[in-house]
Structure formats: C-alpha cells, structure tokens
Amino acid sequence: MAKTLATETLAACRERGEKIVTAESCTGGMVAAQLTSVAGSSDVMERGFVTYSNDAKVEMLGVRMETLNAHGAVSEDVAAEMAVGALSQSKADIAVSVTGIAGPGGSDHKPEGRVCFGLSTPEATVTSTVEFGALGRSKVRKKAMKFALRALRDKRLD
After folding, report:
1. Which of 1, 37, 42, 144 is most deeply buried (CB count within 10 A of its CB)?
2. d(CA 151, CA 5)
3. Beta strand residue intervals within 5-158, DSSP E
4. Residue 20 contacts residue 92 (beta carbons within 8 Å)
5. Cα separation of 29 and 14, whole Å?
6. Does residue 63 surpass a pLDDT of 80?
7. Which of 105, 99, 158 is nearest to 136 (CA)?
8. Contact 92, 44 (CB under 8 A)
9. Which of 2, 27, 41 is closest to 97 using CA atoms?
10. Which one-letter DSSP state was computed for residue 43?
11. What is the dihedral of CA 69, 70, 75, 80, to 10 degrees?
C-alpha cells in the first residue's frame, strides 16, 4: 500500500515536472525511504531532511526558536516552518513535513499519536494534525508516513 502511494506520488509529480523534498522528525526519514524505494525516483526526489532534534529543525530548516518555545515541536506552526524551510533549502517544488509524538508517552495536552503535517509549495503552505491514537510507536510512524505520502499525492492530483 505505501509503495503504491509512493509510486502514485512520484508519477503525479513527474507528470508536472516537479521535485519533492521531505522534512521529517518522528518518522525519521520513512517518507523519503518509501519514495526512494521506487526505482527511478531520482528524477522526482530532490532530497530529505531528518530533523529529529529542535536544534536540527533550527539549523537545517530555519525553524524559529520562538515558534518552538511558543508552540512546541509537535505543532502545526512548527510543521509549517519545517516545510517552508525544506523548500527554501532545496531545489524542490513541493515539501512535506512531519512532526509528532510516536510514543511511548505524550502528555495531557499533547497525547501519544498526535502528528502534525505541513505541505508547502511556492504558492502556499497548509498544515494539518492527525490524532492516530496510542497505537504504539511503529504503527504511529507507519500511519504518519502513509498520511504524508497521501497528502503529497493528493496535492499533486488537484
């Protein structure tokens, strides 16, 4: 299923002559790995950033420390800045970002399974939050990876 999503996403971007960049935290590069598992993906996959720490988000993607302090790493505000930063630090046409709490753990106001996504193009940036629930780390990460691929594909099939 994920490989089909990756293949469809690559095809949709290829048809438009566009390249993809990823900025991933809780998925640790799973979106980029899935895209690059498809033979011939190098004409669409531009690069990927794994920014697990806040320092990496700031240094590699230009996420503002003020945003991290005000909203936390798991927020749509940070997801937006990650996507915008990835786009500006690459030659890609569309960026997807993922930041969340895969588990175990979480807090009263940020539960395990909450994942925030960003999609950025030169025209606009949109964000979303999905509550996957406390499914366990592996399942949350896989669901987040699939959601990101689906978001990329659907954005390019608009």
Report:
1. 144
2. 10
3. 20-24, 45-50, 94-100, 114-120, 125-131
4. yes
5. 21
6. yes
7. 105
8. no
9. 27
10. G
11. -90
If DSSP codes are grouped into helix, strand and coil, which group holds residue 118?
Answer: strand
For the stretch 98-147, pLDDT in tens is 999 999 988 888 999 999 999 999 999 999 999 999 999 999 999 999 99
Q: What angle separates helix 137-156 from helix 2-16, to the nearest 10 degrees?
A: 30
Q: 64: closest CA among 75, 53, 76, 78?
A: 78
Tokens linked to 25: 């935290």
Residue 90 DSSP one-character state: S
Residue with tokens 């806040």: 54
The yes-or-no verdict on residue 19 having pLDDT over 80 is yes
Identify whether the C-beta of residue 92 lies closer than 8 Å to the C-beta of residue 19. yes
Contact call for residues 21 and 90 (beta carbons, < 8 A): yes
pLDDT at 44 over 70: yes
Residue among 7, 5, 16 nearest 156 (CA): 16
User: Binning pLDDT at 50, 70 and 90, where does residue 1 land?
Assistant: low
Give the SS3 label for residue 119: strand
